[in-house]
Amino acid sequence: MLVAILFWAFSAVLVGAALGVILARNAVHSVLFLVLCFFNAAVLWLLIEAEFLAIVLVLVYVGAVMVLFLFVVMMLDVDIEALREGFARNAPLGALIALIVVVELAYVLWVRRLGVELPGETAPLAQGASNTAEIGAVLYTQYAYPFQLAAMVLLIAIVAAISLTMRRRPGLKAQDVSRQVSVDPAERVRLVSMPPEREP
Amino acid sequence: MDVMPMILTMADVMPAAAEIFVAAAACVLLLVDALGGGRARGLAFVLAIAALAGAAWVSSTVGTDGRTVILWGHFVADPMGTVLKLFSYGAAALTLLYSREYLERRDLLKGEYLVLALCAVLGIQVIVSAGSFLSLYLGIEIMSLSLYAMVAFDRDDGVAAESAMKYFVLGAIASGALLYGISILYGVTGTFLIDGVAFAVAQGRAPDIGLLLGIAFIVVGVAFKFGAVPFHMWLPDVYHGAPTPVTLFVGSAPKIASFALAMRVLAEGLGGALDAWQDMLVVLAALSMAVGNLVAIAQTNIKRMLAYSTISHVGFILLGILAGNAAGYRAALFYTLTYVIMTTAAFGVVLWYSRKGFEADALDDYKGLNRRHPWFAFVMLLVMFGLAGVPPTVGFWAKLQVIAAVLDVRLTWLAAFAVLMSVIGAYYYLRVVKLMYFDEPVTAGQDESRFAVRLVLSLNGLAILALGLFPGYLLRLCEQVLR
């Protein structure tokens, strides 16, 4: 009972925060709403006893990804008004697509109630079993192959990002560290011997 | 959760040795390039080709006659997989060989390009051998991410960056649709494994409506990756905008992956629900053949023309798959393999003809090619005849097979439509032949390419004729791997 109340309360906040992400006028507010979303989603994980996933969600998404988001949003200085220009014109189309998706989702939920065997209550963890260890045991055995493939996806992302952005082009104001370090005093400071200034 | 902690031994992962080899080779290549700097370019290129040759050796050594499922059902090794992998190594190696001079002239031959190409091959291998929807999806991402980056590789080319952006955004939508379909399928069957889904469908455990919804999204994802109408929007822009070597890469080996994707998902996983997806594929195939062939007539750029030609050929491949029986799958496999041979030769000639500052991508550039380079005009003639399906080239056999497969399942109107569309398509292929043989040359070009490239390109072109005269070997191969 208590769990159900908590679930509905946190879900409501989650949905409200998700609406806030797309409705907020200020991009920084959107990002902060998204942080709220992640925290509430983490609590939902906690409610089904998936502590490890909850902690990882907060650590990775809130701790790393959202901080990066905030930096990007602040650095880019996005002009919100320009982005909203086409909104009224495209709104009917967007609403139509959203409606279709909602109908489809409702359809699926309705279908699930019709005679599909849902997996029953999740089996409780054995006394003293560690959530993290259980996930690790599955991740590194049964899902070892997809896990390795996901690592390759990350490697490709790194290689692609670096090869597409690291290049020399004329007029680029970049530091060349080795030149900075190996600089000679003679190149920077010119000692000029001048006679002392005379009284006028 | 009572998962037995278990240690994998060499024997357990042996069937996946080729994938491991290519992944390791990509990492080694990355290190060689990083440590060797600019000096190791030639070495990196040789290593990339050697890696593909090594992968071919490994694949053919560990290839099995039967079906082996390892890694908890995520990986399947079977004869079809071995053949598809061998062809994709071959297509990738030919692509790199033809591309070398083009890339060198434009200072694009960097280690990262080769690493991304090898990673794309790895993605294709993973798709071909996918035993679960999870590994299938990850394979698609590995391949697609590498291809997006390759399309944008020429950073000073605005058109290439734009087409990469389109490819990336539309590819992401396709992945989203596919994932959505997979999640619905997981919801109604309770498993990620392709065999498990097939079992649930065969037993009728999955409710029809949920299954249909899942299949609809999966077909959208597959059609996007194939480039079938109406999900073809990215294809002409990417073919046109990307540097020609990348166009060749996108156009050859990934088509094998698309075929494998359709086979693994539709034929193996959802074979029991053939009625549900057959009609969808009929629409996709008919539209692809019509739009591809009709719009190609209006093109003046050969890369764009070949892009629309690709769309029409995708329609033909789908004809074989939608037949839904072993003969149809064999026909689609035969079509895919021969199409890859032909398209590799087509872009090979475009690459051979291009010079510094001369892309050779306008149709008018091919005017009077016969006067200057009669041999490669003949190779291009073979390619065009092959793509049009004129006997005695192999393109004729490929079209005959898929049309016969469609006739077998009593879709006579579709077969008639396919014949009509290939007649229309013949117009723009033969126009290239007319330009080469009966028009006055307008552009002068010197043959500067290396002997090895010319030799391989000639052999590639002659293969279209040889396989057309003696199709038995390839037909038997398709029969052996798809019983």
Characterise this structure:
The complex is a heterodimer of chains A (200) and B (483). Chain A is mainly α and 200 residues long. Chain A has a domain of 80 residues: Up-down Bundle (Four Helix Bundle (Hemerythrin (Met), subunit A)). Chain A has 9 helices and no strands. In chain A, α1 runs antiparallel to α2 and α2 packs antiparallel against α3. Chain A starts with a helix and ends in a 12-residue tail after the last helix. By secondary structure, chain B is an all-alpha fold. Helices cover 76% and strands 1% of the residues of chain B. In chain B, α7 runs antiparallel to α9 and α17 packs parallel to α20. Chain B is globular. The model of chain B has no long low-confidence stretch (mean pLDDT 89). The chains are: A mainly alpha (200), B mainly alpha (483). At the A-B interface, α5, α6 and α7 of A face α2, α5, α6, α7 and α9 of B.
Topology (SSEs and partners):
The complex is a heterodimer of chains A (200) and B (483).
Chain A: H1 2-23, H2 27-47, H3 51-76, H4 80-84, H5 87-113, H6 131-139, H7 144-165, H8 177-181, H9 185-188
Helix pairs in contact in A: 1-2, 2-3
Chain B: H1 10-13, H2 17-36, H3 41-62, E1 68-70, E2 75-77, H4 79-105, H5 111-128, H6 133-151, H7 158-189, H8 194-202, H9 208-226, H10 234-241, H11 244-251, H12 253-269, H13 274-297, H14 302-323, H15 326-353, H16 369-372, H17 374-388, H18 394-408, H19 412-438, H20 451-469, H21 472-481
Antiparallel strand pairs in B: 1-2
Helix pairs in contact in B: 2-3, 2-5, 3-4, 3-5, 4-5, 4-11, 4-12, 4-15, 5-6, 5-12, 6-7, 6-12, 7-9, 7-10, 8-12, 9-12, 9-13, 10-11, 10-14, 11-15, 12-15, 13-14, 13-19, 14-15, 14-18, 15-17, 15-18, 15-20, 15-21, 17-19, 17-20, 18-19, 18-20
